[in-house]
Amino acid sequence: MTSSNAPLTKLNIFSLKGAQMRTFHITWFTFFICFFGWFGLAPLMPTIKEDLHLSKSQIGNIVIASVSGTIIARLIIGRLCDSWGPRKTYTALLLCGALPVMCVGLSKDYTTFLLFRLAISVIGASFVITQFHTSVMFAPNIKGTANAIAGGWGNLGGGITNMLMPLVFAAIVGLGYTQHQAWRYAMLLPGLLMILAAFLYYRYTKDTPEGNYGDSIKGKKSASVKTDYSLLKDWRIWALSLAYAMGFGMEITFDNVAALHFVQEFRLSQAAAGFWAGVFGLMNLFARALGGIFADKIGKKQGMKGKGIFLAVMLLFEGIGLLLFAKAPTLPLAVTAMISFALFLKMVNGATYAMTPFINIKNIGLISGIVGAGGNLGGMLFGFLFKSNAITYSQAFSYIGLAVIATSFIVLFTRFGKQEAATEKTATRMQPATVS
């Protein structure tokens, strides 16, 4: 029988019993709220573009800024999780991130808006804490599944944000405010939600199943662990970072530009474009979890090598789907292709973090931060494609599709090692995986 202060070997998604499951649910919900702050502006960009008289190049810079600050933040946050603990780290990030979210409405021109967008991008580091916290709460046999479900349900916030924020905007306009005022006031809601989430996180979660850093034996040990930077020589970390750049990097890029693409390419209204962009995000309800579940099942029989092959195949299908989306001549075909590549993209994300915690169990925070930063680096680089006046959005999607396909072969030929596979198999045999 599992001890109440040990990592869980069973994931009962309908339970709030124990520090592990309570932390699991608060963690994914907090990550969900973070998306409202991080991408709340994205579905409102058609209005913001007109209000601030933004050019395509300037919008591209804003897209780049929305993810670039997260790269450094994820590296720092990963280290803080190892030393300071996820509970305090998440609380501080939420409170600091809420400030630029609520103050972005003070923007009067492109420059001030760009700076606020850069500050808001730091919120994206919340993902690293989510994955770190879930990893320490669950045993190896179910770790990938738990990470994928927590990440997926949190990423669902990207879809709900695209759908809900235009409605919040419309409601404010309905109260008699101008469009110039409405998008600014709309951003107060995500900021207030983040402050509420900070209170919930600090009050009701624990750093580890045994307690918080500093007041438990486990916590004291965790806080004193020294980061082993020599592991940066491990190519597997960089292969997973590249895979995550093609998965999550593409996801946040699409969250940023989807509404604009649907407005420009298919002449949709801001609300309709936000809805279809939201459908992309809604796939996180199950797709990322599927990636983690399948990866765990494959890992049980074939170890890390099998997981790597699975990840490579998902990347290949994602790339093909992206190419089809880029060439789609009508809205129905575009939506069909979008749902297709979204399924595989989110499974890529789930599979990547079903592998990440097993690279080095003593430095999960650092490795999670590096792989997570890879996702944002991909998003930043993709942003340059959407900034160029010489490249259409459809062409940019095509180029990214080709890059994803190339990455699938890199991952396929990466040797993830037999020792880790054996360790994983042993842990799995000792602890049967269960999801209920």
Helix proportion range: over 70%
The CATH homologous superfamily: MFS general substrate transporter like domains
Radius of gyration: 21 Å
Mean pLDDT: 89
Structural notes for this entry:
- By secondary structure, the protein is mainly α.
- It has a single domain (14-214, 231-430), classed as Growth Hormone, Chain: A (Up-down Bundle).
- It is 77% helix and 1% strand.
- It has 17 helices and two strands.
- It has helices at 18-39, 45-51, 56-83, 86-103, 110-120, 126-137, 140-174, 179-186, 188-204, 217-224, 235-266, 270-282, 287-327, 331-355, 364-387, 393-412, 418-430, and strands at residues 10-11, 434-435.
- It has a two-stranded parallel ribbon.
- It is a multi-pass membrane protein.
- Belongs to the major facilitator superfamily. Nitrate/nitrite porter (TC 2.A.1.8) family.
- One of its GO terms (molecular function) is nitrate transmembrane transporter activity.
- The chain crosses the membrane at residues 21-39, 59-77, 89-107, 113-132, 153-177, 183-202, 235-254, 274-296, 308-326, 332-352, 364-384, 396-416.
- It holds the Pfam family MFS_1.
Keywords:
Growth Hormone, Chain: A, mainly alpha, 436 residues, 1% strand
Write the layout of secondary structure elements.
Layout: E1 10-11, H1 18-39, H2 45-51, H3 56-83, H4 86-103, H5 110-120, H6 126-137, H7 140-174, H8 179-186, H9 188-204, H10 217-224, H11 235-266, H12 270-282, H13 287-327, H14 331-355, H15 364-387, H16 393-412, H17 418-430, E2 434-435
Parallel strand pairs: 1-2
